[in-house]
């Protein structure tokens, strides 16, 4: 059983085993392979046998047990380092040594399912949201105010008076700066937060069984290098069918719901202004602007539906996806 999420609830893996990062450097990769306690016993060295040394001798990949506890009871984690081909060979040899008959992908999915059941023990009776609180995406910088460090929103160019350049300004500009904040960034964040919080409250008050995921980038799905050996056997964003537009491999789910009754629901959040009649803009201009945003939202949903259908195609081909557009800043009458 192979590469797995971390023990933190819904959090992507960061570091394990003596500070080793999930991210492999260069061509050498790090892969996390899970085995049962019984299988681990067969891989533990004795006076006469050194199974993991035999793995290295035959495949060229280093393998060692992770000293950190496994996130799933009854399992132990092997850290395997090597080239992708060496890791594949090492996993195959380890499976032979332990008598495992499952394929690499099946082993990985079995372990991930067990991890989910351990990390979310009430999955069949309550609502879970990832992350459990909304996190703003707008860029900020750390500044000092009244002797305290505070985070301040970066303003867009032209909103401050240009100051004369000083000798230190060249040094300041050589330091990478966070991107400037646009008004649209604040609106998007506010709309996303309002939608996410309202959905969260509604599902919790109604005791709905659902998992809600906020702003999941396509590339984050099985994107950690420590998943690579198993992920190559599974549908991923990078192997979206060639019949679909190439640029559909990039994108995100504003809100993705996995609901017990409604199944898979993708929601595109549109931050159309609360004031839909800006100064110096005719009603026709407002209508045209809204139609463009609506058309773009529909296109984004089509892309999200295609990606989601692709990612679950090995488990539930043809699974229906419900598409929703949220306008948290508009009243029903305005819409």
Record keyword descriptors for this entry.
five-stranded mixed beta sheet, alpha+beta, three-stranded antiparallel beta sheet, elongated, 33% helix, 8 helices, 335 residues
Write the layout of secondary structure elements.
Elements: E1 15-16, E2 20-21, E3 29-36, H1 37-43, H2 51-59, E4 62-65, E5 75-82, H3 84-98, H4 104-119, E6 127-130, E7 140-145, E8 148-153, H5 169-174, H6 183-205, E9 210-217, H7 228-231, E10 252-259, E11 263-269, H8 283-311, E12 321-326
Parallel strand pairs: 6-9, 11-12
Antiparallel strand pairs: 1-2, 3-5, 4-5, 7-8, 9-10, 10-11
Helix pairs in contact: 2-3
Q: Averaging pLDDT over every residue, what do you get?
A: 81
- Class from helix and strand fractions: alpha+beta
In percent, how much strand structure appears in the residues?
Answer: 15-25%
Number of helices: 8
Q: Can you give the helix content as a percent range?
A: 25-40%
How far from one another are the termini?
50 Å
Q: Count of DSSP E strands?
A: 12
Output the helix-strand order.
EEEHHEEHHEEEHHEHEEHE
Give unreliable regions as ranges. 5-21, 158-165
> Main beta sheet: strand number and arrangement?
5 strands, mixed
Shape: elongated
Report the radius of gyration as a whole number of Å.
25 Å
**Biggest β-sheet: strands ordered side by side in the sheet:** 6-9-10-11-12
